[in-house]
Request: fold
Amino acid sequence: METIRNFCILAHVDHGKSTLADRIIELCGGLPKRSMMDQVLDSMDLERERGITIKAQSVALDYRADNQHVYRFNLIDTPGHVDFSYEVSRSLAACEGALLVVDAVQGVEAQSVANCYQAIEQGLEIIPVINKIDLPSAEPDRVIAEIEDIIGIEAHHALLVSAKTGAGVHDLLEAIVGRIPQPSGHPEQSLRALIIDSWFDNYVGVVSLLRIKDGRLPSRSKVQIFSTKRTYLADHVGIFRPLKMDDRDSLECGEVGYLIAAIKEVEGAPVGDTVTQADRTVTVPLSGFEPVRPRVFAGLFPVESDDYQSFREALAKLRLNDAALSFEPETSVALGFGFRCGFLGLLHMEIVQERLEREYHLELITTAPTVNYETLLKNGAVRLVNNPTELPPLHEIEEIREPIIQAKILTPPEYLGGIMALCQEKRGRQVLMHYYARQVALEYELPLSEVVLDFFDRLKSASRGYASFDYRFLCFREAPLVRMDFLVNGDLVDAFATIVHRDVAYTRGRDLVDRLQKLIPRQMFEVALQAAIGNQVIARATVKALRKNVIAKCYGGDVSRKRKLLEKQKEGKKRMKRLGKVDIPQEAFLAVLQRSPGE
Amino acid sequence: MAASIPCQPAEGDSPTVRDEWGLYIHLPWCVRKCPYCDFNSHRAPEHIPEMRYVTALCHEMEQASPRFRNRQLVSIFLGGGTPSLFSPEAIERILKQARVSFPMTTDAEITLEANPGTAEAERFKGYRSVGVTRLSLGVQSFDDERLRALGRIHTAEQARAAYRMGRDAKFLALNIDLMYGLPGQTLAGAQRDLAEALDFAPEHLSYYQLTLEAGTPFFHNPPTRPDDTVLARIEMDASARFAATGYERYEVSAYSKGIWNTCRHNLGYWRYGDYLGIGAGAHSKLRNSNGIWRQVRTRFPAGYLAAIEANQTGYEEWRLEHDEIRFEFFLNTLRLREGFSPNLFQQQTGENLATVAETLQELADLGLLEVSEHNIRTTQRGYAILDDVVAFFLPTQATGMIWPQACPA
Reply:
């Protein structure tokens, strides 16, 4: 155990985590210099493109240190995006140390702060690493001061590296040996291993990434999953080497490696659970993680209704590897059959959508993301509502509570005004504001519903991209929320119903009817568009009746031309959905329901 | 609340309409093709093969003769193209053959379309003397600038002269074709055009909007035309003028001075009657005990002539499906102010009106049709959006390839 070092890399997106990981692997002789893939850890195409790692993975490396001892490095990968912070905490539970990588030009970002605090809370040794020192505009001293200032940890002994050129990486490896503690644990005790991650593999079934906390896990031994009490035969155990799996006779105390035990579903090996030996009785499991809950919801509908079955199957397959993804069937007047899916956040949603489109070749329409609400009913019951149409009748509701997040923003001071105005507009409540040398830290409590709308884009433009943002779910909190209905010629259109704050209902309603008025073509009769709360109409617009067709001359004997003309016009109408007697083009639905690009 | 849809034909209605029919003769050449025109017209060569073409038409009539042995020809329409490019002698031969080949009423309406230019006008008396009863002048506008924009070869002054010569020739009826919504036309301009046409007091006026048809130069390069608001004003204003001068809008784009001046031939189309079309590209609609049949003749004059001279039929013929018949019936009859009776529907389509009762009721509820026990017709509102009304009856299967079949005549 004294030669094992378990660590991860914490870094903001683009601060060079993947490049640094590559360099470490290379110096440890894990791969020849130009390997097949530049960034080994990111195995999915999509991840590599996004520069983000979605699923936690690990790689075992052997490093011959200056003291001539060979150390086993287990590098545990962490995702860099806020949506996946729960996966960060899982990764951290496998480690004794963390490299906090900060870009020598861009400095500290909110993401780094949030993740670093998590690592400190879990008692990890933090090694600050200033990356990209090869850049002419690098200011390592400034960044070191910022780390001390904003994060509040000692950084004068930070390592200056360039993952790109390899400069300083050797010193970094020595620091990993010298500064990160060896794993603790009791090798002589009965097996207790923490499930860091589980995923489904088409060939072998469920693969679990484990950290052996106590005891050892021999291959071909019988193991038990603590929560389910089900026992399995450990068919294979081993460690992940770069680009391959390395079967072992056993996993020893303090090691990180995989277990394959013919488990059929990821639910069989829940993340955060404890693996024990089947023949020994362990009474106390390891402390796991809080289960993840979807916070952002959207309807996904196949463009071709024939794709519904394959869509269902694709979601089920994705779900095997993504416990955070939830889905239930949904039908929409406008969009047909689909699923209402729950996501951790907007990025998670985007990734799922892209994987469905890319890997399963589905064409999807995604509705604008919404959040779920907690309703307290007059009879005292509390109900979670994922869809505005599920909201109980007003007279049964005592109060509606919306999800509130705690948002941390770091920004250069010149953008403070714009950002505060934005948070204000988004019904934010300021909790904290602190000036550092070059940046200002803001903490707000914000309704998640406002954040999923367009907050990221607005924040980016308000700060020219300099502000960084991190959030976590705080609580459900009561707010004056109402369900806004939408009526076409008096008929309720379910698909357009939304839950909004009373103060903005009027503006939103107005905006909605105005937009639809422009998109719904004139019909043979006048069409009234109304936004309403309960029985009260709050906004109204009218699509005037079609004034006239062209008066054309009689075609004499040839009716075919006229027929073709009328058929062409009808073809246009076919793409419309008929609500009552009103033809509504798909674009009108999409304008209301779909996310606008770039959100 | 609209009246319920009548389904049963009244007793004792005589199906005379079926026995009458019209003859359409297509004369396909023009001096030059106008940029808005998508009719089957072709630029005339220096000398059009007049006699060859007439011979072909006569041959067709001889061939068709047995089919109409027991029927009454009530109207002939010589359309184009520019029929007035043909000499009165040529027209005489055609009409003579028609009288030989087909039983014809003595008071048959015989219309000839003419370009209102000087050269043609000199032939008007000749046309009249060989039996043409009705002259239709493609005036389009009395504004030289509009005429130039339309690519017309005549001037406003020539049109006025042609009209007067038509009168002098003592045709029983004159028609003026007038268009609105022309390139660069203003409300006042359209008003002037119509006022001038009405001042001539023609028996009949066709008044319709310039449309941009696919495949025409205007379609690919649209000229600036009055917007919808102006067009609506033009139509509103026109309807008042027609009413004030005693013109009846008996069809969506056709006005007659009193109800006795309607165009019998066109009424045949609109009442979904039978017609035989001969000449290049002409369409026919014919009914026999096996159903309703359509014919289309070879479109290009050269091909048409070659086919006829080789003693081929020169046309394709196919039977209409039930839903096509229904659609064509409504496409035509709903254009008429008089509408149609349940009897006419039954006679012409062979189906009971109950087949479409639901759609009729829906349109009645929308205020687009007026439905009573003996009559169904388009309301004023329905007239304004006639395309949308007719579209309710479109066959479910879109028109595609034409399948020629042998007609068991």
Q: What stands out?
A: The first strand of chain B starts at residue 20 and ends at 27. The CA atoms of residues 67 and 409 of chain B lie 7 Å apart.
